[in-house]
Amino acid sequence: MSSNPVIRKIHLIRHGETNWNKDKRAQGQLESVLTPDGMTQAQELKTRLQGIPITEVYCSSSVRTRQTADILFGDRLIGDLVIPIVYCDQLREIHMGPWQGLLYSELREKDPDQFHAFWHQPEKFALVGAETYQDVQRRAIKRLDEILQQSSAEDIAIVSHGVLIKTILCDAEQRPLAQLWDGPAMHNCARSEINIHADGSRRICVYSDRPYK
């Protein structure tokens, strides 16, 4: 038996495909909705999650994550009761300021330096009116720590967004934010899993539905 057993698991789930994902439009904290393909992705993930005893769900308050969480867990029972879904503003996507709602092709031409930083040098992304990646990571880890302190559940799901989930994974692996976009890619409805050990350490065991390393 391990001297440092796994005591809890965090299942990080990205929302399904949205209309703005399909348009290649910057979403940030503006609202978009799941496409039919996005709903199918969530249904397929629901099937894969059936054997995992998730008993608590925390979800970004954005519409696209709420839709995803409802498909995944809206009818999941503990005894005779449907498990509650807790909606959290702190789990929303990076606020992209003046970029929100614009096509990525427009942003590439409008602000090529910051566009390059966003995708290739995230530690240097600094757009007036937007959050930095450091800002997102701070609020994500703060909310995760609160969940771990307040909950005794062994399997907890967090339904959120690509950037926010990536910042949590960087923290778990103690990687710098400069490596945030390193693979594997985080597709829509990707699930990443972090083991929480008895000493409080966090280790990724599944990344984007693939065994980690």
Keywords:
alpha/beta, seven-stranded mixed β-sheet, 213 residues, Rossmann fold
List the helices and strands and how they pair.
Blueprint: E1 6-14, H1 19-23, H2 36-48, E2 56-60, H3 63-73, E3 77-78, E4 81-82, E5 85-88, H4 104-110, H5 112-120, H6 133-150, E6 155-160, H7 162-173, E7 191-197, E8 202-207, E9 210-211
Parallel strand pairs: 1-6, 2-5, 2-6
Antiparallel strand pairs: 1-7, 3-4, 7-8, 8-9
Helix pairs in contact: 2-3, 4-5, 6-7
Description of the molecule:
By secondary structure, this protein is an alpha/beta fold. The protein has a single domain (6-211), classed as Rossmann fold. It is 35% helix and 20% strand. It has 7 helices and 9 strands. The chain has helices spanning 19-23, 36-48, 63-73, 104-110, 112-120, 133-150, 162-173, and strands at residues 6-14, 56-60, 77-78, 81-82, 85-88, 155-160, 191-197, 202-207, 210-211. Strands 5-2-6-1-7-8-9 form a 7-stranded mixed beta sheet, sandwiched between helices. A two-stranded antiparallel sheet has the order 3-4. A hairpin with a 2-residue loop joins strand 8 and strand 9 (210-211). Helix 2 (36-48) crosses helix 3 (63-73), helix 4 packs across helix 5 and helix 6 (133-150) packs across helix 7. It is globular, with a radius of gyration of 17 Å. The model has no long low-confidence stretch (mean pLDDT 95).
